[in-house]
Amino acid sequence: MDRQQEYVLRTVEERDIRFIRLWFTDVLGFLKSVSITAAELENAFSEGIGFDGSAIDGFARVQEADMLAVPDASTFQILPWRPEAQGVARMFCDLVTPDGEPFAADPRQVLRRQLRRAADLGFTFYVHPEMEFFLFEGSDEPRPLDGGGYFDMTPLDVQQDLRRQAIMTLEQMGISVEFSHHEVGPSQHEIDLRYADALTMADNIMTFRLVLKEAALQRGLHASFMPKPMTEHPGNAMHLHLSLFEGDANAFYDAADPLRLSATARAFTAGLLTHARAISCVTNQWVNSYKRLTPYTEGPLPSGEAPVFVSWGRANRSALVRIPMYKPDKAGSTRVEYRAPDPACNPYLALACILAAGLDGIERGLELPPESADNTFELSAAERAANGMQRLPADLGEAIAEMEASDLVAETLGEHLFRHLVANKHREWDEYSAHVTRFEIDRYLPLL
Question: Which of 145, 187, 270, 401 has a C-alpha 20 to 30 A away from that of 359?
């Protein structure tokens, strides 16, 4: 037993922790939990806890259903919203087969594989996400609580208090928050998590989503990470600020470059752009995701600043990849911002595919295309074509086709998970395509 496990056992005894929730995610990024008593914790560390893998979407076929959840002691945290007496804690788990081998289709293991690949090249992958969400009166209809806009100080104290409570809960669980504010849409908010290594951040994102929903529920509200819940307002993004470090040195920084971008950063960004269409089905995995990634329209249907075209630029919020220039001479601040993902993705798979795309750019020495200094929405189709600027998939069906054709995504996810995800997304797209929407009823029934 290692020291971290001994610390957890000691803390459980000293803090009167009665139950420990063992957390893991399914293929689509939904949080799953097995609860054990404190008396079973030592056995869980040494042997894992058995469960039926066929009950978890995409994890196993019935004939190979036996799985073990092995808690990662480094993720131990007490749940602050549960009672202090006979309290509850949680740990994320790695999933293994009965013979002790890592289960290849465990999303956490998928990300671990890419992190080992990066480590073999001398890199550590760091991520800083901007988490956007809406607060609604309930889950039946998207009814906002205010009419506020970007950075507004809204008069409804319930929302500010909710953000404050959520941030305090996150910090009690060891998740550092950089800042928070009201976002563009009514009753839309953003909380930015301080950067961390990618595996820790994926765990943090899963925790964040639960904490926000718990905080809202306690106030009789509903927190939603749905990418585009309202037609007439911008959707929820999860902009990701990415960097690679070599030890304590930022591998993306080069003081001699006008943009302070190293050759490594440029090749990484080129890899992101090359594979952006292929990884879209992972970073934006729902039918609704593509209602957010729509071209700019005048009038009552704004798309906000969601990227649509595969491009990069400085301070260009229409670009897919933005190079933030807040502190250009601070080496540690050099990063690239990937703006396509939404907060309803599976963060383990999304970060694994993003890292795989960037590393492919580094390993192949891909050249960064010319910077897009213009608002990509205002360019004509001919101008975009002349610049070699592709569009992200227009809908989930196109995204599935791009993913199916990608060797990089297949290799990153592994055969088992890749096949299941493709099949799952085909089912979702087929169901959506056959569904008669309210739009069709309102427009066509009176006419046809």
Answer: 401
| HSE value, Cβ hemisphere, 13 Å, CA-based, for 136 | 15
CATH architecture of 3-103: Roll (3.10)
CB 368 within 8 A of CB 258: no
Find, among 71, 74, 80, the residue nearest to 23 by Cα: 71
Please report, to the nearest 10 degrees, the dihedral formed by the alpha carbons of residues 192, 193, 198, 199 taken in order: -130
CATH 3.10.20.70 location in the chain: 3-103
Q: How far apart are CA 404 and CA 399, in angstroms?
A: 9
Main-chain phi, psi angles of 56, to 5 degrees: -105, 125
Q: Give the end-to-end CA distance of the chain in Å, rounded to a whole number.
A: 72
Count of other CB atoms within 10 angstroms of residue 427: 10
pLDDT (tens digit per residue) in 396-434? 999 999 999 999 999 999 999 999 999 999 999 999 999
CATH class, domain 112-443, is: alpha beta
CB atoms within 10 A of CB 97: 16
b/e 339-364 (16+ beta carbons within 10 angstroms → b): bbbbbbbbbbbbbbbbbbbbbbbbee
How buried is 178 (Cβ within 10 angstroms: 0-12 exposed, 13-18 middle, 19+ buried)?
Answer: exposed
Task: Give 21-38 pLDDT, tens digit per residue.
Answer: 999 999 999 999 999 999
